[in-house]
Specification:
- The chain has 209 residues and is mostly beta strands.
- The chain folds into two domains: 35 residues, no CATH class; 118 residues, Immunoglobulin-like, CATH 2.60.40.10.
- The protein is built from one helix and ten strands.
- The strands form three sheets. Strands 2-10-9-4-5 form a five-stranded mixed sheet, with no helix packed on it. It has a three-stranded antiparallel sheet with strand order 1-3-6, with no helix packed on it. Strands 7-8 form a two-stranded antiparallel sheet.
């Protein structure tokens, strides 16, 4: 895999999967119209079996890695997946900039999150812009990151657009100690990016009553 420019992951596409894959590889459909890949991984793909199970929404461990330290004392390889949840390539590149996050909002309010996305490559394509959130402190252990929304935007070469997301307090609910839904005020991190391992990070606070 390390020697390949790209990998086509087709899953189980059915009897017409072959022609569809060929059209994507050549960049043209049966009618001659331009087509580009746009799928995203619904799983994280490990580097080796020693990383299994691996998933983006894991709980934090007792030895969280330092930002500049990407290996572990138990297996001699990076701790990151080979390909993260939400990852996917196409025939162009996209750049994320100008993240904006509502810094503080209440239980009856709404938070807004947005970022500028620019097609910086040679082809028109569709980008799946993803919003992730992390609850920094909770009465039960919280995942290091959770997908809270995504939008698909199609951009021509050089074109930009601002992608907006909105969250209510109910979108941050989780099962508490009694297994009932609970919404806890506190601090959160938010990311907007192309997959679960990349993107622009901001912070916000969910205020109590």
């Amino acid at each position: 895999v390390e020697l390949a420019d790209a990998v086509r992951y087709a899953w189980q596409p059915g009897v017409e999967g072959g022609p569809a894959i060929a059209e994507l590889l050549f960049g043209r459909d049966a009618n001659g119209a331009a087509v580009t890949p746009g799928g995203r991984l619904p799983i994280s793909i490990p580097r080796t079996v020693g990383q299994v199970p691996i998933y983006y929404s894991r709980k934090n461990s007792g030895r969280p890695p330092r930002p500049n330290y990407d290996s572990t004392g138990y297996i001699d390889l990076p701790i990151t997946p080979l390909f993260p949840f939400g990852y996917g390539l196409t025939y162009t590149t996209f750049h994320y900039s100008e993240l904006q996050v509502s810094p503080r909002w209440g239980l009856d309010g709404m938070g807004e999150f947005s970022a500028e996305v620019t097609n910086t490559g040679p082809a028109a394509a569709t980008e799946t812009v993803q919003l992730y959130v992390r609850d920094l402190v909770g009465q039960v252990t919280r995942p290091v990151k959770e997908l809270k929304g995504f939008q698909r935007v199609t951009l021509a070469p050089g074109e930009s657009c601002r992608v907006h997301f909105h969250l209510r307090a109910a979108d941050l609910a989780f099962a508490g100690l009694d297994d009932l839904p609970i919404i806890e005020p506190g601090r959160y991190h938010a990311w907007i990016g192309p997959n679960s391992a990349a993107g622009l990070r901001g912070e916000f606070e969910l205020a109590g009553e």
